[in-house]
Amino acid sequence: MIRPLPLSLAALLVTTALHAAPPQDPDVSLTVYSSADPRGFDPQQFIAQQRAGYNPNFASQVPGFGVIRDTRTISLKPDVNTVRFTDVAAFIDPTTVSFADVSPHARNAKPDKLPSIIEQSFQFDLVSPEKLLNKYIDRSITARILLADGGHEDVTGSLLSNTQGQLVIQTGAGLRILQRSQVQLKLADLPGGLITRPTLEWLVQSPDDAPRDHRIRTTYQTGGITWRADYNLLLNQDDTKADISAWVSLMNLSGIAYENAKLKLIAGDVQRVPSAGQYDRRRMEKSMMMAAESAAFEEKEFFEYHLYTLPRRTTVRNNATQQIALFPAVPDVNVDKVLLYNGLPDAAHWSIARNPHLDKNFGNQSNKKVDVYIRLDNSEEDGLGKPLPKGKVRVYKRDDADDSLEFVGEDLIDHTAKGAQILIRVGNAFDVTGERTQTDFSIDKRGHVITESYRIKLNNAKDNPVNVVVKEFLYRWHNWRITRQSDDFKKIDSRTIDFEVQVPAESSRQIEYTVRYTW
Fold first, then answer.
1. pLDDT in the model for residue 283
2. Inter-residue long-range contacts of 405-411, CB under 8 Å, 24+ positions, other chains counted
């Protein structure tokens, strides 16, 4: 009986005499750009797909890219040199490669006294079991079958086929068909054309009188790397203050690790021209303590974006995600809890149309849910005042009964500048509900007038009064006037008004208004 033995890449790899070791003392820095939508971007999904090997090109669909600056010392002889620059990212864009001599002796040298690239190629046909075996078609291989009694049988012959997990081997005694997953294979050498690491190969022209050793900085762009921001917000007991911490989740599927690297992040919407076929996608308490103690990113304005620089070096591992504090935890930020009632249900959509909406029943659906928001001003006066990259905000509150943190909701924020207001929707109120009713409607098509009245009823089952913001969308036409209202309102924009009222404990409150549209 044959005992199955998985075929591994390690079992196939052979030692070669390729002289392509990377130069010594590399110095690496990288800047990572993200186009990830935090609503649908899950780093662990990409990691799982990559490790399982389901789709070799999956990493190229990562929503982001990196700019790598790799500085190494290389030796050049006068005239033309062949330089193999190994350990580059697998998803490098070869058209973005730049080559600069940053040696001290090059600072004041004329361009014709510096080395220059006259030809470049990118070699990326990496070794894999499938590629190795395909290269061995019509060549001799040895397949070892492990037997149930502990012995083995060696089958040596010419490989005729490697398809659908089966090997067809021509031996002196005839054809043998073997299951690839049940054998170990022995190969003589690494066939030409296959490499173990992505490699840039250059022809470099070096002047006759140039020094032998050069400090060369190579810059290029790569896919397969991105980041996103995650925020934790811990409310105090009366929901008036919050401790806020921020983390960067950095994901690297670019094909290599960046050892002891300088790390920068760019926050903002950077324009890139998509290539044909490019994928299109436009433990809480301990973490807070760690964020307060760790060296976080230093932020500054850069062009029309914000640049975050880690003040220490770090190793960015391949096929992994890691979390780094974006900034130290900020305690006692002023916040307030807002109950907001939007009488239109989420499923009801309206849009700005070319003509008025004349249907009496348009927008008459009623939503009973009252949304709960945490509102804060991103200002130094209120305790924050930091540019915030877009990301997911998770909100927690402490349970005094056992001093544990309980999750109360989460929301997404867009890139948020200093001074801007932030609204974080955490869920729906349990004890506060609403009801929106059309009480009157009339239309004069000849006079181009619509008059419409609404009543909004708010119910409060709590044993304390609550403040509720009622948001009304005047969706029929842009030319409108409120002719009657029971309470003061605030005009938010050309189509939106807000009423803010207090609802007594264990009671209800009604708001009424009439709007007149003309066109």
1. 37
2. 405/234, 405/284, 405/285, 407/284, 408/235, 409/372
- b/e per residue 14-32 (b: at least 16 CB within 10 A): eeeeeebeebeebbbbbbb
| Residue 72 CA to its chain's centroid (Å) | 30
Alpha helices in 234-321 (DSSP H): 284-293
CA atoms of 482 and 254, how far apart (whole Å): 58
Is the pLDDT reported for residue 264 higher than 90? yes
CATH number of this structure's domain 335-378+421-518:
2.60.40
Which residue from 472, 455, 462 is spatially nearest to 509, judged by alpha carbons?
455
Q: What tokens were used for 141?
A: 């291989």
Q: In what order do the strands lie in the sheet with 391-399?
A: 320-334, 241-252, 225-235, 391-399, 404-413
Q: Which residues contact 276 (CB under 8 A, 6 or more apart)?
A: none
How many Å apart are CA 143 and CA 166, to the nearest integer? 12
The reported pLDDT for the residue numbered 18 is 34
Q: Do 443 and 476 form a contact (C-beta atoms < 8 A)?
A: no
| Four-point Cα dihedral 318, 324, 326, 332, nearest 10 | 160
Structure tokens at 405: 């943190």
- pLDDT class for 212, splitting at 50, 70, 90? confident
For domain 137-186, which CATH number applies: 2.30.30, 2.60.120, 1.10.10, 2.20.25?
2.30.30
What contacts 277, CB < 8 A, 6 or more positions away? Answer: none
Report the alpha-carbon distance of residue 169 to residue 159 in Å, rounded. 5
What is the model's pLDDT at position 274?
61
pLDDT in tens, 348-402: 556 677 889 899 998 888 899 999 999 999 999 999 999 899 899 999 999 988 9
CB within 8 A of 34, min separation 6: which ones?
63, 64, 226, 227, 228, 265, 266, 267, 389
Sheet holding 116-123, edge to edge: 79-86, 199-206, 116-123
Would you tell me how many other CB atoms lie within 10 Å of the CB of residue 273? 5
Report the C-alpha gap between 251 and 424 in whole angstroms. 26
| pLDDT for 86 | 85
Where are the domains positioned within the chain?
137-186, 335-378+421-518
Q: In sequence order, which ranges of 194-266 are alpha helices (DSSP H)?
A: none
DSSP per residue, 74-111? EE--SEEEEEEEES--TTEEEEEEEEEE--GGGTT--G
Question: What is d(CA 100, CA 107) in angstroms, rounded to the nearest whole number?
Answer: 11
Report phi then psi at 112, rounded to 5: -75, -5
Task: Report which residue type is found at 77.
Answer: K
